[in-house]
Design goal:
single chain; alpha+beta; Alpha-Beta Plaits; about 30% strand; globular
């Protein structure tokens, strides 16, 4: 806690939320599009007014979902954490829910205090689409060998320059190296799950990694081709950017 000049105490709150990204244009506030941050801030203003500073743990693209997304909020408002959680869940749209709210150290930052994040990408691998998964998983009708793709994906693991696996973006200056701690491809019936944990992710990085694995499944990139693509450090050599609908921010580790 930090004491302010007027005698009030500046608190730092960590909120864990979950959201359906189908109707949002990502997390970050935009001028002409509805975002999760806008929905969250609107609800927060109804409860505590304008006296807060909010930081999200990550940018997410339009249509991307979050099983767990973390937000840090600095405010001098005295509302207890549990009451804030309940109030937000009353005012937020049904597509967003607050899972947890607690006080944290003053220097905690939802983004910069993060040690790693885990994403999951869902692929409905069946000739017939599943109407209940529209917007929540990529429908891929052609055969996928999950074991083959899992083996190929191990080339992502470790510290690499991921220039080939990000969309060029002025928001990503400097070092494009990231350390991937884990990448797995597993199958559960017709659902194929690609799960990746890293110390950080570049713009579109996970979706391009997935798109590259699908190119391997199609025989357009050899199963052992990922190391060469990493070496090229050139976006044109990797696969396409997979659709956002299958991507979920699954876990944020501090």
């Amino acid at each position: 806690m930090q004491h302010l000049c007027d005698g009030s105490v500046l608190r730092n709150l960590l909120l864990t939320i979950s959201y359906d990204g189908k109707c949002f244009h990502g997390w970050q506030i935009q001028q002409n599009a509805y975002t999760v941050q806008e929905a969250f801030q609107t609800a927060l203003q109804k409860i505590i007014g304008d006296g807060f500073d909010i930081k999200g743990c990550s940018r997410t693209d339009s249509g991307v979902h979050a099983n767990r997304y973390c937000v840090s909020v600095k405010t001098a408002h005295p509302i207890p954490a549990e009451r804030l959680k309940a109030a937000l869940n009353r005012w937020l749209p049904l597509s967003v829910a607050v899972l947890d709210c607690k006080e944290v150290d003053a220097d905690f930052h939802a983004r910069y205090s993060c040690k790693s994040k885990e994403y999951v990408y869902k692929i409905w691998n069946s000739e017939v689409r599943n109407p209940f998964l529209d917007g929540y998983a990529l429908h891929y009708r052609y055969p996928l060998d999950a074991d083959l793709l899992n083996q190929a994906a191990q080339a992502y693991v470790g510290k690499h320059d991921f220039t080939s696996f990000c969309t060029p973006d002025s928001r990503e200056p400097g070092d494009l190296s990231r350390t991937v701690k884990h990448f797995s491809v597993t199958r559960d019936g017709d659902m194929v799950l690609m799960r990746v944990e890293a110390d950080g992710f570049l713009y579109n990085m996970v979706r391009i990694m997935v798109g590259t694995l699908l190119r391997i499944a199609q025989g357009k990139i050899p199963p052992d081709g990922i190391p060469a693509i990493l070496e090229k450090r050139d976006r044109q050599f990797a696969g396409p950017t997979a659709q956002p609908c299958g991507l979920y921010l699954n876990q944020v580790n501090y």
